[in-house]
């Protein structure tokens, strides 16, 4: 159980962000209200077979990488990668898919920012906890095609089809890269994965099992991943790229499938303070639960209310900003906004929806958006909800049913909570929310160091 | 095919294995050991074998790969033996 008095600080961050050279570039673009969503040539190449063609994708070139394609396997099978900036040794690149490489690069940046020594990194008290929503789909598609369709021997896919595709490949690659001696695990919970890993890492430190953890979520660029959602007809279409992600807007019609990586360094608070670390934020609490209604996809108002109850209890504490999941899907956004209002009331806080700027990074969403919360604490500015032009002036259909027990005003009544452009205000505490298929809900509260 | 010609071809393959130090490839002989002398990660050996099959137009038996030694001459012998068998 929790160790009394033990607190958890965030002391470093890094990652991979669409169309951004580094974290500073990412921050600058976000707070200047820019969209990172673009037309994706790889999707467009498949013509009418792909329904949506916009994404917050990241190319190898943007990450300073070159791909070496195999001469043994068709369909652009990445045999390995070259790090043009010499950050990652060849031996580590050989066992990594592109998402694992992003995780190693993000880890380097986070550790540098944290100021951890090699002795601290390689300690038994340092863990690695991170994961992604999908498998190593880019690697698997070509390897399977090579065997099943082309009838080639299994060995032609080489000796790294397992380590580059296994469920906890990012954690394994990062652990081998930094040589920590503590835990190495992955938490996988669909689109709650990024926050789920950070929450689990928080608990490991809070419960006294580890002192430092590199943690986060990753979703490597993959058309294979994209087409699964495209086939479900849940992706946004019909808008310009910059207008495609529009949480809470009346005309929203789906999310923008994006990719990225968010890595943070967590440390037991007193140790971090004692060595003079810069504290980016202090985690107050993490809580996660399940809807319990048997529905794989549809969000649960009651499940989300129980989530808040688990996070805050009866404390009555109100965050200055709620960083919502806000995917831009018709069902998700309305339930989420109404559950937030039901718990926190109609004023005294703002709602930030960073997916409006870079889309839905799936397994990376929770961790990259946690980083946006840390940036909001640093900049003392609320990130906007771009394209939330019109909120529904009418009640949602479910609000008219007799068993509805939530707010009875239309979404339009809460317009003032949702800024369309970044705004400055005093921010001491932020609550981050993320949900995933399977009815899983997660929430974390992070505050400025006092 | 002369043995030296095969060794030269193997060196070309080894140049594509980025975990091997390129400077060590200058003096490769039949007695060079992939693991002990070139520090080749053992997991890369199967990649070298498959590229060898492709480059020399041969297909090794699984048993031969299982029994393959770690010296350059072992691979040269296997290529010559496999080619001879294919020509029978």
Question: What features would you highlight for this structure?
Answer:
heterodimer; A: 450 residues; alpha/beta; ten-stranded mixed β-sheet; two-stranded antiparallel ribbon; 14 helices; globular; B: 88 residues; mainly alpha; 51% helix
Structural overview:
- The complex is a heterodimer of chains A (450) and B (88).
- Chain A is α/β, with parallel strands linked by helices and 450 residues long.
- Chain A has helices at 23-31, 41-44, 90-93, 98-114, 118-121, 137-149, 169-178, 193-206, 223-231, 269-274, 301-312, 330-344, 355-358, 365-379, and strands spanning 8-16, 38-39, 54-55, 65-69, 78-83, 126-132, 184-185, 212-219, 260-268, 281-290, 321-323, 350-352, 381-382, 423-424, 429-436, 440-447.
- Chain A is built from 14 helices and 16 strands.
- In chain A, strand 15 (429-436) and strand 16 (440-447) form a beta hairpin.
- Helices cover 51% and strands 0% of the residues of chain B.
- Chain B has four helices and no strands.
- Chain B has helices at 3-15, 45-56, 62-66, 72-86.
- Chains A and B meet through strand 5 and helix 3 of A and helix 2 of B.
């Amino acid at each position: 159980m929790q160790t009394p008095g033990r607190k958890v600080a965030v002391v470093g961050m890094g990652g991979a962000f669409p169309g951004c050279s580094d974290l500073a570039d990412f921050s600058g673009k976000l707070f200047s209200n820019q969209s990172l969503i673009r037309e994706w040539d790889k999707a467009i190449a498949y013509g009418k077979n792909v329904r949506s063609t916009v994404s917050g994708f990241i190319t190898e070139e943007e990450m300073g990488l070159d791909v070496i394609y195999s001469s043994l396997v068709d369909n652009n099978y990445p045999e390995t990668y070259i790090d043009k900036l010499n950050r990652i040794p060849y031996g580590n690149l050989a066992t990594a898919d592109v998402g694992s490489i992003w995780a190693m690069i993000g880890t380097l940046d986070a550790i540098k920012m944290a100021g951890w020594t090699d002795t601290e990194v390689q300690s038994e008290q340092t863990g690695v906890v991170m994961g992604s929503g999908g498998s190593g789909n880019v690697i698997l598609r070509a390897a399977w095609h090579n065997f099943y369709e082309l009838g080639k021997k299994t060995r032609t896919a080489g000796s790294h089809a397992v380590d580059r595709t296994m469920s906890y490949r990012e954690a394994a690659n990062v652990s081998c890269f930094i040589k920590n001696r503590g835990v190495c695990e992955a938490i996988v919970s669909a689109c709650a994965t990024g926050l789920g890993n950070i929450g689990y890492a928080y608990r490991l430190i809070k419960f006294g099992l580890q002192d430092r953890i590199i943690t986060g979520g990753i979703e490597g660029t993959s058309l294979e991943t994209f087409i699964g959602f495209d086939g479900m007809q849940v992706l946004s279409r019909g808008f310009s790229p910059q207008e495609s992600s529009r949480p809470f807007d009346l005309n929203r019609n789906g999310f923008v499938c994006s990719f990225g990586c968010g890595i943070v360094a967590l440390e037991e608070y007193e140790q971090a303070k004692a060595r003079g670390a810069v504290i980016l934020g202090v985690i107050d609490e993490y809580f996660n639960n399940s809807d319990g209604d048997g529905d794989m996809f549809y969000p649960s108002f009651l499940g989300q209310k129980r989530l808040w109850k688990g996070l805050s209890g009866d404390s009555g504490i109100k965050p200055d900003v709620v960083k919502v999941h806000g995917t831009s899907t018709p069902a998700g956004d309305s339930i989420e906004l109404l559950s937030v209002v039901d718990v926190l009331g109609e004023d005294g806080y703002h709602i930030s929806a960073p997916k409006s700027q870079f889309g839905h990074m799936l397994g990376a969403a929770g961790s990259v958006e946690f980083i946006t919360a840390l940036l909001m604490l640093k900049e003392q500015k609320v990130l906007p909800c771009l394209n939330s032009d019109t909120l529904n002036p009418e009640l949602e259909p479910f609000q008219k049913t007799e068993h509805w027990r939530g707010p009875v005003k239309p979404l339009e009544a809460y317009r003032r909570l949702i800024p369309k452009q970044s705004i400055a205000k005093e921010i001491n505490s932020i609550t981050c929310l993320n949900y995933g298929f399977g009815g899983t809900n997660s929430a974390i509260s992070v505050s400025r160091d006092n | 095919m002369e043995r030296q010609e095969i060794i030269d071809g193997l060196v070309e393959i080894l140049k594509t294995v980025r975990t091997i130090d390129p400077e060590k490839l200058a003096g490769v002989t039949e007695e060079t050991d992939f693991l002990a002398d070139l520090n080749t990660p053992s997991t890369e050996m199967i990649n070298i074998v498959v590229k060898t099959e492709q480059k020399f137009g041969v297909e090794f038996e699984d048993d031969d790969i299982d029994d393959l030694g770690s010296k350059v001459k072992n691979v040269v012998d296997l290529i010559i033996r496999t080619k001879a068998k294919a020509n029978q």
